[in-house]
């Protein structure tokens, strides 16, 4: 078995891949592989295709994570294993934790490369991820606006965008994205939709004053729910299951 082999499994409407078991000494040639001596344990999978059953399962898992106020780390893992959520909402291929050489140890939560490849402007979207339990708006009654947590995340992703074109990062960007981005779109994913029409209008107004897109988890959930509604409607007319296109990369 090659050290670069992958495992493929089909589970609950998902086609998933993951790293295969690997020899303890992969450079030693042998016609046999002793699985009991393997030292690699695969606990995470990447969904590359799903059918309508898989979409329903994904929506249920996502809703459960939101209801129990999952942590930022838990949401990061979910998006890494279910890239269709970000891909379909942001129209890009999500790349988790791209690295910078300068400043060292800088790494946005996600970069989203255009699905059709780099176009004339060669843009890429940088996404900073915060938890669904974070407050979207502050508690002010007068001059109400986005919370301190939102503004901090906005400043953070702006820094990522500014340093992407740093000379020491150029080769690293090409290695990770396959091309050199000439500009970046910036976004923050944080919190839930506010309650009440007045609060929602405040969020919409404050959004127009920012150069960074602020997205809530409810917006992502709605994207998937809308797709599920369309599939079920099509299924009523066609009378059978509908397979969603591949979302792998």
Structure keywords:
Restriction Endonuclease, 37% helix, 7 helices, 5-stranded mixed sheet, single chain, 2 domains, 249 residues, 3-stranded antiparallel sheet
Across the major sheet, the strand order is 4-5-6-7-8
CATH class of the largest domain: Alpha Beta
Q: What CATH architecture of the largest domain do you see?
A: 3-Layer(aba) Sandwich
First and last CA, distance: 23 Å
Q: Indicate the radius of gyration in whole angstroms.
A: 21 Å
Number of separate helices: 7
> What is the makeup of the main sheet?
5 strands, mixed
Instruction: Name the poorly predicted regions.
Output: 237-249
The CATH topology of the largest domain: Restriction Endonuclease
General shape:
globular
List the helices and strands and how they pair.
Elements: E1 6-11, E2 14-19, E3 46-50, H1 52-67, H2 72-81, H3 84-90, E4 92-96, E5 110-114, E6 123-129, H4 148-163, H5 170-177, E7 183-189, H6 197-208, E8 213-215, H7 217-238
Parallel strand pairs: 6-7, 7-8
Antiparallel strand pairs: 1-2, 2-3, 4-5, 5-6
